[in-house]
Design a protein that fits this description.
Largest sheet: 5 strands, mixed
Number of helices: 6
Helix content: 25-40%
Number of strands: 8
Distance between the termini: 27 Å
Radius of gyration: 17 Å
Strand content: 15-25%
Structural class: alpha/beta
Order of helices and strands: EEEEHEEHEHHHHE
Shape: globular
């Protein structure tokens, strides 16, 4: 069976904090919940990140319902087979840490588009995010989507989870700064990314999963 990890729960949408997940093939099986007051339904939020060169491979292997491309306009890709055009967000932006003449710097409008696109994601299937090398723009976008989709999660914990999954991640600082402002995080997203330290130097990143728990919508 090919495709992304699917979630099966005896009670739809519930993720018990007390019991571990089990994985059967491409299905995440959540345990039957214990009836206790104050426990929110949880699901596993799955984002995959990759470079442009591995988009088709990632789509075939993980079956994402949503795709985000962050590339310069001249390098933008067509929507690959297996993804609906309406669920492919194309953000034409260059990977620069500060505004630069002749290039498109990541702006608040780009992040606003990403956040609006994320609202349509039910999290029942993975989201795939890529840029040219799978190192900077895409890892920043993955962290932004995680923060937006799990608004009660600690920004520092999410950043550490990203670093554990991707030692090579170097999230674009402009994207992070705009997201921090739009999400009202008072600098915590920027501080969290700064706190994970320097990345491992690579030319191109691998396909990697960024997985966190999130309250069901």
């Amino acid at each position: 069976m090919s495709g992304g990890l699917k979630i099966f729960s005896p009670t739809p949408g519930f993720r018990s904090r007390a019991q571990p997940l089990r994985i059967r093939g491409n299905v995440i099986v959540t345990p039957r919940p214990v009836a206790r007051a104050g426990i929110e339904p949880y699901i596993t939020l799955m984002i995959f990140v990759c470079p442009k060169s591995k988009v088709e491979e990632a789509v075939a292997a993980h079956g994402p319902s949503h795709l985000v491309s962050l590339l310069g306009a001249e390098a933008m890709i067509d929507t690959p087979a297996g993804v609906a055009c309406a669920r492919h967000l194309k953000l034409s932006v260059n990977d620069i840490p500060a505004p630069e003449e002749g290039k498109v710097a990541p702006g608040a409008d780009h992040v606003a588009e990403l956040l609006a696109f994320t609202e349509d994601w039910t999290m029942e299937a993975p989201m795939l995010i890529h840029c040219w090398a799978g190192i900077s723009r895409s890892t920043a976008a993955a962290y932004i989507v995680a923060c937006a989709s799990a608004p009660t999660a600690d920004e520092f914990v999410l950043a550490k989870t990203l670093r554990a999954a991707a030692p090579h991640a170097q999230p674009n600082p402009l994207l992070i700064a705009h997201a921090d402002d739009l999400l009202g995080r008072d600098g915590r997203m920027m501080d969290a990314i700064d706190a994970i330290g320097e990345a491992t130097c690579v030319v191109e990143g691998p396909i990697f999963p960024f997985k966190i728990g999130a309250a069901a919508r």
